């Protein structure tokens, strides 16, 4: 199952091999990416094909609002192909309620 993780600063610190296939980019090629970098990497549209502002993307919402979010969107990655993707994103809360970042699980619909 494709997964991605951002840390408490919003830096994309990990995505797995299954995510690499969907995103058309290997993590060992990109390494950690600051939020301004990874958000510029993609285009996201709703099911009516209207652009979704970055601040309303599922992983960004889970990170900023520290709440779980689930949404099906159209995602354009590095290869310029549009994919219909279901995202579930949620905050990562550590010991003593410490905010550690957010994680997303996603798959093609």
Report on this model:
- Helix content is 23%, strand content 39%.
- With 109 residues, the chain is an alpha+beta fold.
- The chain has one domain: 2-Layer Sandwich (Beta-Lactamase).
- The protein has a 6-stranded antiparallel beta sheet.
- It is globular and about 40 Å long.
- The two termini are 13 Å apart.
- The mean pLDDT is 94.
Please give a handful of descriptors for the protein shown.
109 residues; alpha+beta; Beta-Lactamase; 4 helices; 6 strands
Can I get a quick summary?
The protein contains 4 helices and 6 strands. With 109 residues, it is an alpha+beta fold. The chain has helices spanning 17-23, 27-30, 35-40, 58-65; strands spanning 3-7, 12-15, 43-45, 69-76, 82-93, 99-108.
Major β-sheet annotation: 6 strands, antiparallel
CA-to-CA gap between the ends?
A: 13 Å
Q: Class, according to the CATH hierarchy?
A: Alpha Beta
Looking at CATH, which topology would you report? Beta-Lactamase
Helix-strand topology string: EEHHHEHEEE
Total number of helices: 4
Strand content: 35-45%
- Structural category is alpha+beta
Low-confidence stretches: none
Output mean pLDDT: 94
Helical fraction equals 10-25%
CATH superfamily: PAS domain
Q: Into how many domains do the coordinates divide?
A: 1
CATH 2nd-level architecture: 2-Layer Sandwich
Report the C-alpha radius of gyration, rounded.
13 Å
Q: Which overall shape is indicated by the principal axes computed on the Cα atoms?
A: globular
Could you tell me the number of beta strands?
6
Q: In what order do the strands lie side by side in the largest sheet?
A: 2-1-6-5-4-3
């Amino acid at each position: 199952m494709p997964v991605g993780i951002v840390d408490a600063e919003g830096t994309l610190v990990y995505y797995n091999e299954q995510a690499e296939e969907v995103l058309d980019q290997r993590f060992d090629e990109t390494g950690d990416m600051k939020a301004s970098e990874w958000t510029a990497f993609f285009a996201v549209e709703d099911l009516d094909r209207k652009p979704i502002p970055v601040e309303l993307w599922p992983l960004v919402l889970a990170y900023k609002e520290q709440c779980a979010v689930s949404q099906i969107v159209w995602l354009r990655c590095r290869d310029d192909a549009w994919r219909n993707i279901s995202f579930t994103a949620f905050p990562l809360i550590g010991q003593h309620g410490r905010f550690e970042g957010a994680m997303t699980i996603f798959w093609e619909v």
